[in-house]
Structures are given as C-alpha cells and as structure tokens.
Amino acid sequence: MTAEQVRKKAAFRRLAGKPFQLLPAFIFIALTVTSHAGSFSGPNHEILPAVVDYAGRDGLSSNNYNMLTGAGGFVQSFFPSENHVLVLGLGDLMAWPRTVTDLSASTGPADGSVLLSWTSPAADGSTGTAAAYELRYSSVPVEAPALDEARFFLSASVTDFAAVPAPGAPGSAEQLSVPGLEGGATYYFAIKARSSWDAWSYLSVGATAQARLHAPVFSGFSGVGEGSVRIDWSCSGNVSWAGYRVLASTAPDPLAPGGAQVTSSDTYNTYLSSSGLSADTTYYFRVAAIIGNGASISYYTAPRGISTLADVPSAAGFADVEENAMVFGWSPNGNSGGTLYRVAFSTAPDPLEPEGAEVVSSDTYALSLSASGLAPNTTYHFRVAAVNRAGVVTDYA
C-alpha cells in the first residue's frame, strides 16, 4: 500500500470516528480509483464518474471514479485487479431533505383549529420522498419554533393534537388541520422533514395564524314580555377577552333577512336582554363569538325564535244587555289586527277563581263577545286576555 493510500485510510478513520449530529450534514462514501485509466467492469460492479447530489440539488461532478456497494454503507474491503486498486476515499454523498419554504397557516375550518399548508420537499436525492415530518408550535411569540433550532426542539409537537400525515412525493400539496386549540389565540408553527436515514432538513419558514373561535351554544329564552326578551347561551374554549355578537330580526334567519330590519348587539356577557320590541311578534336570534370589533368571529348559532307577548287588552264594558244575553267589549291596547283574545266569564266574582261555579271560556279575533243563554236577573263577571302567536296567554284584564 502506498503512503498516499495509508494517509487516506487514516483520514477516513478519523472522519468515521466523529459522533453523529442531528443537524443537516452529508456523509461522503466512495472508493477512489488509483492506477491506470481504462475500463473496470464486471458482473457485480461497475465504476462510473461520480455525480454529487445534495439537498435536492445536482449537477456537481467529481473527477474521481467512485464505487459504492450501497447507499449509506461504507465499503469494507479492497477490490484489487491487475490494473486497478480500489481504496476508501471521498466521493458521492447522501442528501438530506430540502427545506420547506412555503409553510403557511390560516384559521381552520373547525372550532379551535388552525389549517397548515406546505409543499412536500425532496429527500434522499432530488426525487426521493421524505420519511416523516416533525411539526412544532407555540403560542408565545418569543418561543416561536421557527426562530432557531433550539426553540424548535423545545416547542410542543403538533402530534399532541393531530396525526401528522406521511410525506407525499416531492412537490405534493400537503395540508393538516390542527384541532383542540384555544379559540382566538395566536399560534406559531415550523416544520422539518426527515429522510429515511434519519437526517433532518433545515428549519422551515415560520407560519402564524389565529385558531378559530369556538361558537356559542344556545341555552334558552327568559323574561319574555310584551316588548322584551332575554336570550342566554354558553361558550367555553375561547380566550378570556372574547366577546359575543347577537343578531335579532323578524326574518327567520337574521343573516339572510330578505329586507327585514336586523339589529346587532355586542356584549361580554353570556346573555342579552332586548327591549323595545313589538308585541305579539316573533323574533329570531343568532349569536357568535368575536374578538375586538369582529375582525375575528366564530360560526353563528342556528336561528332561534321567540314570540313576544301580546298587550293586555283593556275591558271597555257591556252593551245590548237583555234577560239572557249581553255583549262584552274591550280595546286592543296596542295589539295589531288579527290578535286572538280569550274571554272567561262566570257568576263567580273572579272567573279565574270560580270556587266551584261554572266558567265559560271563548276565543275570538273580534274586540267583543256576545254571550247568550244566560240566567235572568243574574250577575256575570267577565275577564279578557290576549293570546300571542306562540299560544302564550297574557295576563287577564
């Protein structure tokens, strides 16, 4: 063995003895041809000019003739012949994955989610597919995983919330919806790709997005009056500074009013009392979570409707009193035409508390009721109430 060959073998042993690092690096593995030029081929091996290929970039070629028995493996023996001697040297290399340069983030399609998108990089050469991805995130700006390698590996893994997809062929469009996040919070993301031989790409560009706010859940209505109503809802999973927007309209869907008036009210409470409404009218409500002036907003609840009470009518008196008949009348007191009224009458002083006396109840859309078949020389007591569109009866006059 020549002195030059001994020097190369010693240099290789020093290189092979260095510890493996996770940072992107490439390993040179080759056999250098010494001696004469000429053909060296056989049934098992063929020596060809080396082409250097690294990080998905190729086109750099060496002047050496290199021979590898397999990617990732060191040649462990010599291949002597009459004209050539092969020794360990530096030549072709294995490539680590390309860096993801187009990672992007946006508010996700589901409550508490962020949608990530990127293009799959080449790995193990210009056409190979990466073996896996590592996605990291943080909700603290100074701890964003894209700032440096240390912050990346100290950040939490997206696998806490979702299964990261296996890499597709180079150039494939990749997407991942990350669920389970705090609604309205801002998150910072970065990604690395890993090759089949456990080499990592350089750190990607960073991507930032706000998780979609969780939508409120309708609880119910209370405090229904002639011109007022209270709507209640619940909501959890959002940032503490999130508020709510309530839409109200006589249209069945306040988001599609079809020309009907829509009122919008913002509040930090989980309820809203609406006043100044029209009596005996059905109103529909929808609620969404918001941040600020609504630049960030959740999905709205489904429309929920409630009818205000009708106004209590005012008793006007009697007319056409006869031996066994009379007419009882009242005024609408603000109720619209077409309002239904319920009249109760009895010989008891209060038809609502007859204490065993007979009570007659009649419904009418008119503003009077003609009672017949009464007993002569008998005192009758009448009370009237209005019934709203939902069948709810007002107080009796």
Descriptive account of the structure:
Helix content is 5%, strand content 39%. The protein is built from two helices and 25 strands. The protein has helices at 3-16, 149-154, and strands at 28-35, 48-54, 57-66, 84-93, 104-107, 114-119, 132-138, 156-157, 173-178, 186-194, 207-210, 217-222, 229-234, 243-249, 262-267, 271-274, 282-291, 296-297, 304-307, 314-319, 325-331, 340-346, 359-364, 368-372, 381-387. β12 (217-222) and β13 form a beta hairpin. It is rod-shaped, with a radius of gyration of 41 Å. The model is unreliable at 5-93 (pLDDT under 50).
In a nutshell, what does this entry contain?
The chain has 397 residues and is mainly beta. Helix content is 5%, strand content 39%. The relative contact order is 0.10.
Topology:
Layout: H1 3-16, E1 28-35, E2 48-54, E3 57-66, E4 84-93, E5 104-107, E6 114-119, E7 132-138, H2 149-154, E8 156-157, E9 173-178, E10 186-194, E11 207-210, E12 217-222, E13 229-234, E14 243-249, E15 262-267, E16 271-274, E17 282-291, E18 296-297, E19 304-307, E20 314-319, E21 325-331, E22 340-346, E23 359-364, E24 368-372, E25 381-387
Antiparallel strand pairs: 1-4, 2-3, 5-6, 6-9, 7-8, 7-10, 10-11, 12-13, 13-16, 14-15, 14-17, 17-18, 17-19, 20-21, 21-24, 22-23, 22-25
